[in-house]
Amino acid sequence: MKNIINKWYKNHSLIYKILLFIGTTFLIVYLFPKSGKFKYNFDKNKPWQSENLYAPFDFAIQKSPEELQKEKSAIVKESAVYFDLIEEVKDFVFEDYNKKFNATFHDSLGRKKTELFRVGRSVLNEIYKNGVLEEDYNYPNDKNVILLDGQNQIASTTYSELSKIDAFRSLLEKQLEDRGNSKFTAVFVSMFFDLIEPNLKVNKSITQNALNEELDKISSTRGNVERETLIISKGELVEGHKYDILKSLESEYESQVWSSSNYTWVVISYSILVALTLLMLLLFLRKYRIEVFLDNTKVTFIFFNILLMVLLTTLIVNYNSKYVYVVPLCVLPLVLKAFFDARLGLFAHVLTVLLLGFIVPNSYEYMFLQITAGIVTILTVSELYKRANLFISVGQITLIYIITYFAFFVIHEGSIATLNFEAFGMFILCGLATLFVQPLIYIYEKLFGLVSDVSLLELSDTNTKLLKELSNKAPGTFHHSLNVANLAEASANEIGANAMLVRVGALYHDIGKMKNPTYFTENQSTGINPHDELSPQESTNIIFAHVLDGIEIAKKNNLPDRVIDFIRTHHGTSVVYYFYMKEKELDIATDIADFRYPGPKPFSKETAILMMCDSVEAASKSLKDPSSTKINHFVENIINKQMEDGQFLNADITFKEIESIKKILKNKLANIFHLRIEYPE
User: CB–CB of 15/8 below 8 Å?
Assistant: First the structure.
């Protein structure tokens, strides 16, 4: 059991990567569409570029959305509206009319009363012929209307034949005028306003059900294509009926209901492809970025960003695929370049675009656009901490999007007459969204504990609390650190290393000397050396302690690990030679290991550069009567001794790069000591 636990502990990092790999693969496959994918690309009114296409199975020809909408509109227009007719209302109105008429008109009118009574009855019969509406429903006049008595259909007419509740006015006025009784119009109108009651009310439930029944009868297909039927020949134009058949076949592939067996195979196939893509990324990290591969936090960060881009694109495609170019995919290489390097950023970007090719429409066009934009991003964005650089680069990326899309559009359409300017707006929105990379980098720094050039720029400010404290407590050390920073930055620029990182590392590499500043020669302004009162071994231990003290101070002040690495490694496993020789004078059997720094040795170009510059700058203070020849020998001796001591074996730095650094250091020291050519008097 103990052996199993030990084995698990030794391999926990690898086990975590395997679980991360499986989990990311599962999540990406889960986001992918679980259907077949049509393997041919085609455009309307363009030649068919592939081989002759035969129907792989029987399928129906789908009607276009426009055709279906046209049929639905026709049915909605022709469908009938059902009204409930309440016959009792008419009987009540006529009965009430008799009472009101007799109460309003006196018998003294004689035959005129009988005539007026008939006029009123005639108007009532006319408006209640088909019924009186409860309200004006604003249907077309020719709209079919069916009258219901309960559930029974009793009449069929048109909407124009139904009476509105105030329709009696015009009828009354006309009939009374025709008979020379216009003087009674006001009395009749007043009486009818109190008398008329609606007896028609639309039955929404039956009307909607009847409409739904008719709509359900619409067929979404028109005709069938049998298996092995020739659909289109190579070079034939994709137009008319051929285009409809191809769209139907494509739809059949992408929307058919899969059996459990087919579904399983689709998921397995997706899993294989996604796993291969992510495996390529892990192999790239293991071969070319081993320090990233060994750091589980960094690997998790890379996988998280790839998954985030797949998720965002999937959400947009599911909502409306025409907005797919709004997703700021170039944020991925920007972020990875900010925290790692350009090559890793581009490699991860290309793999992500390949994954997204499964879910986006026009996948070839999409991948070409995004890979081109990713390359432009890597080539144009430098020194991300400078705001102007980011704005300029985003402008260039947006321009590349627009130009590339324009070229594809002209190839597909053959002209610019129908150019879609909405797409250009989406590219501009994508560019604006890409600007969000600055706050995103800050968020990532806090979430994953990483450090970018933006943070390094902040740390390089000599007015930071820690550097001001160093300048107050150990001014000599602070001045030494500034000189080393200048030398290291110039050296890093010469060999293409991270100049900002090495400068920050140089500024903070000796902060441990704040604890006992007077024990270091650069801070001994009074001429009193406290080491004179100590044994060589005690002095050595104090010298050693500045590394551990520096690490402690750095962690207390939340300096990033990338900066703390410079504090750990700037002396490597070198020997405090001065005190070793003093001890050896006292005891010939002195072990040199007691005077050797515990390490570790530099493990990157940047930490190796700092070790060289630190040693050269510190030792240069002892140069007497410096000349070009003396400086050249001096630099060669110090760095060659470090190489012979194996200090750079773990650093990814070449002999050629070391020679370039030597050249820079020689030139810089010559400038520092103001060496000039001696002119004859």
Answer: yes
Contact 312, 355 (CB under 8 A): no
* DSSP string across 74-99: HHHHH--EEEEE-HHHHHHHHHHHHH
Residue 601: DSSP 8-state = P
**Nearest to 405, CA basis, from 425, 377, 390:** 425
* Banded pLDDT at 304 (limits 50, 70, 90): very high
Band of the pLDDT at 548, cuts 50, 70, 90? Answer: very high
Question: Do the Cβ atoms of 184 and 172 come closer than 8 Å?
Answer: no
Q: What is the enclosing helix (H) or strand (E) of 479?
A: helix 475-495
Q: What is the DSSP string of 416-431?
A: STT--HHHHHHHHHHH
Whether 260 has a pLDDT exceeding 60, the answer reads: no
Look-up of token digits 């260039």: 396
Asked if 513 and 570 touch (Cβ cutoff 8 Å), the reply is no
pLDDT at 490: 94
| pLDDT tens, position by position, 338-364 | 888 889 999 999 999 999 988 887 788
431's tokens: 């560019």
Q: Which helix (H) or strand (E) holds 260?
A: helix 260-288
pLDDT at 4 over 60: no
Strand partners, 148: 84, 153
Instruction: Of 527, 567, 528, give the one whose Cα is nearest residue 545.
Output: 567
Residue with tokens 């009310």: 201
Across all residues in the chain, what is the average pLDDT?
A: 84
Nearest to 168 by CA among 102, 100, 118, 122: 122
CA 127 → CA 142, 186, 196, 436, 653, distances in Å? 18, 18, 9, 69, 102
CA-to-CA dists, residue 225 to 62, 230, 235, 357, 668, angstroms: 11, 9, 21, 30, 81
The structure's pTM equals 0.61
CA distance 328 to 625: 60
DSSP bridge pairs for 237 = 47
Report the alpha-carbon distance of residue 165 to residue 141 in Å, rounded: 16
- The whole-angstrom separation of Cα 650 and Cα 233 is 63
List the one residue out of 76, 81, 90, 414 whose CA is nearest residue 214.
76
Give one word for 79, left, alpha or beta, with left for phi > 0 and alpha for psi -120 to 50.
beta
- The Cα 242–Cα 248 span in angstroms is 10
Tokens of 139: 């249907």
Residue type, 499: A
Which tokens is 615 given? 């040693």
> What are the two backbone dihedrals, phi and then psi, of residue 36, each rounded to the nearest 5 degrees?
-70, 165
Residue range 509-519: mean pLDDT, rounded: 91
Give SS3 for 389: helix
Which residues in 114-238 belong to E strands, given as ranges? 144-149, 152-158, 200-202, 221-225, 230-232
- pLDDT score at 488: 95
Take residue 374 and report the two structure tokens written for it. Answer: 């990713």
- The answer to whether the peptide bond before residue 56 is cis (omega within 30 degrees of 0) is no
Q: How confident is the model at residue 479 (pLDDT cuts 50, 70, 90)?
A: very high
Q: What's the CA gap between 642 and 159, in Å, rounded?
A: 102
Q: Which element (helix H / strand E) includes 240?
A: helix 240-255
